[in-house]
């Protein structure tokens, strides 16, 4: 029997900790089980067992595991391996991964419970302080209370230190208690108090109820819904549905319950939406069939294939057929999407085809729902397909056969904060290889990295170039805002061309989408007259305006510039700071089109999923005619009556201070343009820009993805960006700005000794201070062919070296590998 267990703690620790397994737990202990362990002073955590073995650690004395929480593992073995990979690659701790991976209902929170000591007597020489006395007073009303609740009830703040002194004085006890947060969901159901065989008695009951019309109505509704008078089994009727159907209140129901005619019962129900499959997969057209065959054949010698299919080519149907192939082998499928709230149409379609074998893992799901999905995968309850957002890569899959990453170019696949800062597409590729599964990346606008991998032969490549039902791609027309402004023909946000086409479309009863890049982006400086934008001499990205310093800053190298008084391009003194949001566009649109209903969709108007769905539904049912929105309108929406799309400012996207700005601008514009057009009716896109001469604009007009790719990949190579170089950002945070400045300079200098010119910075990131912490960023640009384990070793060495300096102990340091 093994006496020791290595465990993962939910803390950013660089290694596993070893605990002794008490004898009585030894026979039940398994890797993947949760245990409660003490760590630090008086702290208890839920940890996960990784290994069990007979070796005591050499350098510290072990503590005992307190409790074993599970009879069987809540993780499958490959998951631990996957966590370790993520921690290693993204330079974080396995504890960070553990925190991100498990739904919090499974993480079991440790709440410290304290109780008053009934035998306590105040010591004359060591009287209680006021705050201590006040706390003890509140506490004495309880037998046991958590620190959290006590804090609330006493109205005192930050009571932990007081609790500690009370502990020292033995006025209170502490008992740790762990409680699970998961609660099964229940629902109330209603049934007749007798069975069908006694249905003859109903007549008497009807007579009895003839004077209480509402009760009669309710009873009739029940009989109808349950099928009481028909052959076959009774259908279960929930209280909620019954009251809704009968259109009465629960007072009426209580009457029938009191008379003993109906009875109620409670039932545990699953939160996972389950629905029987009701639809067949559609027949594929010839292009889709070809694509499916090609994908399957690339899978013979490639593990990952990129499906590059124009918008509305019907990629979803291809996925569905591919999924069916995998299900035939009885293996599982993970279908990743960037954001579920944006894919109601997709969700509905998949549910209809796959019914109960599909489960959804949401970002807006409650934690209980997540636990249910987790458990049903763990217990193998028939779920074969998971449709989910990035965190669903952490679910306990048994045997994945296929991972689909839809809209693989989306940057929401990358987690920014907190650690693990992983990219779900890239991590999914690793996950798939651990299962021997294939990966299909799908998009109309591949990321430069994925397309590069495809061209290099690392990924398979399959193309679909025609839209389903031969709908044509929209015509893209340019409005030159620079010219229009100079001629004073464009006072607001809309060009005359956009106004004209929109009002014609609206008059024909068609709809219009106006697209404006995300609200509140980083402020920029621009020449009002010629639209000149300052760029960094070293990095070829637009500069960001920093109000605090009244300076322009390059976020890639940290170089700062003064704001020129005169425009270097046209010589005028018309430099201004700018940025405009969707609200202002809405106001403008209301003025231009007072007779139409306008809807705005951005982060502000779609805080809840309902709000979002309402906006979409209203627009689909043509209750609103103009839809104004940010990136949200570019995604996963299929409208059949939109004939004009306006891209209000291509420039704000192209000039965004990021080396991926043009790539993203192309992706966004191509996606939003894809919303224009209806069956047998080509749509029009009006693209407003001050730079019609930019190659990117030309590429958008001609739907020329390859052209865009060639330009961008050349720049990436020239300026040493991915996919040729790998980026690692090193962030340092501290309260004291001066100290942080000096420490981050020292740190960068130290890194430079190892990595030379591959180190840039330190500089101030776009948001240089968050919650009283100042932030500095150091960049490592490393050749793609460099050995990553070696790079990481070196990084850790420098970090260890720096930590010898005591001042560094208070600095928060973390890495962002492959930042987006
Ligand atoms: P994409 O994801 O490539 O942009 P979609 O999968 O959303 O395209 O398909 C666009 C539209 O065409 C959808 O309304 C879809 O229902 C329809 N469609 C695509 N393929 C088929 C098919 N084989 N049979 C019937 N309808 C299809
Ligand atoms: Zn720069
Ligand atoms: Zn100018």
From TrEMBL:
This is Replication restart protein PriA. Zn(2+) 2 binds at residues 536, 539, 554, 557. The keyword Hydrolase applies. Transmembrane segments: none annotated. GO terms for biological process: DNA recombination; DNA replication initiation; DNA replication, synthesis of primer; double-strand break repair. Binds 2 zinc ions per subunit. NCBIfam families: priA. One of its GO terms (molecular function) is ATP binding. Its cofactor is Zn(2+). GO terms for cellular component: primosome complex. Belongs to the helicase family. PriA subfamily. Residues 296-464 form the Helicase ATP-binding domain. It catalyses: ATP + H2O = ADP + phosphate + H(+); Couples ATP hydrolysis with the unwinding of duplex DNA by translocating in the 3'-5' direction. Gene3D superfamilies: P-loop containing nucleotide triphosphate hydrolases (3.40.50.300), PriA, 3(prime) DNA-binding domain (3.40.1440.60). Its EC number is 5.6.2.4. Component of the replication restart primosome. Initiates the restart of stalled replication forks, which reloads the replicative helicase on sites other than the origin of replication. Recognizes and binds to abandoned replication forks and remodels them to uncover a helicase loading site. Promotes assembly of the primosome at these replication forks. Residues 562-719 form the Helicase C-terminal domain. It comes from Coprobacter secundus subsp. similis. Keywords: ATP-binding, DNA replication, DNA-binding, Helicase, Hydrolase, Isomerase, Metal-binding, Nucleotide-binding, Primosome, Zinc. Zn(2+) 1 binds at residues 527, 530, 567, 570. It is an enzyme of class 5 (isomerase). The gene is priA. Coiled coil: none annotated. It holds the Pfam family DEAD. PANTHER family: PRIMOSOMAL PROTEIN N (PTHR30580:SF0).
């Amino acid at each position: 029997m093994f006496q020791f267990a290595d465990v993962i703690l939910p803390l950013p620790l660089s290694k596993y900790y070893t605990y002794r397994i008490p004898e009585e737990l030894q026979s039940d202990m398994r890797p993947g089980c949760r245990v409660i362990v003490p760590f630090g002073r008086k702290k208890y955590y839920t940890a996960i067992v990784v290994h069990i073995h007979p070796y005591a650690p050499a350098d510290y004395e072990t503590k005992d595991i307190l409790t074993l929480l599970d009879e069987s593992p809540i993780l499958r073995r490959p998951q631990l391996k996957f966590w370790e990979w993520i921690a290693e690659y993204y330079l974080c701790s396995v504890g960070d991964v553990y925190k991100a991976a498990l739904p919090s209902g499974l993480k079991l929170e440790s709440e410290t419970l304290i109780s008053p000591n009934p035998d306590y007597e105040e010591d004359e020489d060591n009287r209680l302080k006021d705050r201590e006395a006040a706390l003890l007073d509140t506490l004495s009303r309880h037998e046991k209370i958590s620190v959290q609740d006590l804090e609330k009830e006493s109205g005192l703040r930050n009571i932990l230190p007081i609790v500690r002194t009370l502990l020292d004085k033995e006025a209170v006890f502490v008992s740790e208690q762990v409680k699970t947060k998961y609660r099964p969901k229940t629902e109330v159901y209603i049934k007749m108090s007798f069975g069908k065989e006694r249905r003859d008695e109903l007549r008497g009951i009807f007579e009895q109820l003839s004077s209480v019309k509402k009760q009669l109505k309710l009873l009739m509704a029940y009989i109808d819904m349950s099928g009481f008078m028909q052959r076959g089994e009774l259908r279960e009727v929930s209280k909620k549905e019954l009251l809704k159907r009968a259109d009465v209140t629960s007072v009426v129901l209580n009457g029938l319950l009191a008379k003993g005619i109906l009875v109620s019962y409670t039932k545990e129900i699953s939160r996972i939406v389950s629905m029987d499959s009701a639809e067949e997969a559609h027949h594929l057209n010839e292009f889709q069939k070809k694509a499916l065959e090609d994908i399957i054949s690339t899978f013979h010698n490639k593990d990952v294939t990129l499906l590059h299919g124009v918008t509305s080519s019907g990629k979803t149907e291809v996925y569905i057929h591919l999924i069916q192939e995998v299900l035939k082998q009885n293996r599982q499928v993970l279908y990743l999407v960037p954001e579920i709230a944006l894919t109601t149409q997709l969700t509905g379609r998949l549910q209809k085809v796959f019914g109960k074998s599909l489960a959804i893992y949401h970002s807006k799901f409650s934690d209980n729902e997540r636990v249910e999905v987790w458990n049903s995968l763990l217990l193998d309850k028939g779920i074969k397909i998971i449709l989910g957002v990035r965190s669903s890569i952490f679910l306990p899959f048994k045997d994945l056969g296929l991972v689909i990453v839809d809209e693989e170019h989306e940057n929401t696949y990358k987690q920014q904060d907190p650690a693990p800062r992983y990219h779900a597409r890239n991590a999914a590729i690793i996950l798939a290889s651990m299962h021997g599964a294939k990966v299909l990346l799908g998009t109309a606008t591949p990321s430069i990295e994925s397309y590069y991998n495809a061209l290099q032969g690392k990924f398979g490549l399959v193309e679909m170039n025609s839209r389903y039902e031969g709908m044509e791609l929209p015509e893209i027309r340019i409005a030159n805002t620079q010219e229009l402004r100079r001629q004073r023909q464009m006072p607001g946000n809309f060009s005359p061309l956009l106004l004209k086409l929109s009002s014609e479309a609206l008059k024909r009863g068609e709809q219009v989408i106006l697209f404006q890049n995300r609200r509140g982006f980083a402020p920029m400086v621009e020449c009002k007259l010629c639209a000149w934008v300052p760029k960094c001499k070293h990095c070829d990205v637009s500069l960001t305006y920093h109000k605090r310093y009244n300076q322009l800053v390059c976020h890639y190298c940290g170089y700062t510039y003064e704001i020129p008084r005169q425009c270097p391009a046209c010589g005028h003194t018309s430099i201004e700071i700018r940025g405009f949001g969707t609200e202002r566009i809405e106001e403008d649109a209301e003025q231009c089109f007072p007779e139409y209903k306008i809807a705005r969709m951005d982060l502000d108007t779609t805080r809840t999923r309902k709000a979002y769905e309402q906006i979409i539904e209203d627009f689909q049912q043509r209750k609103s005619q103009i839809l104004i929105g940010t990136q949200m309108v570019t995604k996963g929406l299929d409208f059949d009556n939109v004939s004009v799309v306006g891209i209000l400012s291509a420039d704000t996207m192209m000039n965004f201070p990021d080396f991926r700005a043009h790539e993203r601008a192309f992706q966004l514009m191509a996606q939003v343009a894809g919303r224009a057009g209806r069956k047998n009716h080509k749509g029009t896109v009006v693209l407003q820009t001050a730079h019609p001469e930019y190659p990117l604009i030309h590429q958008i007009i001609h739907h020329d993805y390859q052209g865009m790719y060639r330009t961008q990949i050349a720049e990436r190579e020239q300026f040493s960006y991915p996919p040729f170089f790998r980026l690692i950002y090193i962030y340092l945070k501290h309260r004291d700005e001066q100290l942080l400045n000096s420490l981050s300079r020292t740190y960068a200098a130290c890194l430079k000794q190892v990595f030379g010119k591959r180190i840039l910075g330190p500089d101030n990131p776009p948001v240089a201070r968050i919650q009283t912490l100042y932030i500095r960023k150091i960049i490592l640009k490393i050749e793609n062919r460099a050995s990553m384990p070696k790079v990481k070793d070196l990084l850790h060495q420098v970090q260890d070296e720096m930590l010898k300096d005591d001042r560094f102990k208070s600095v928060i340091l973390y890495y962002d590998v492959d930042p987006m």
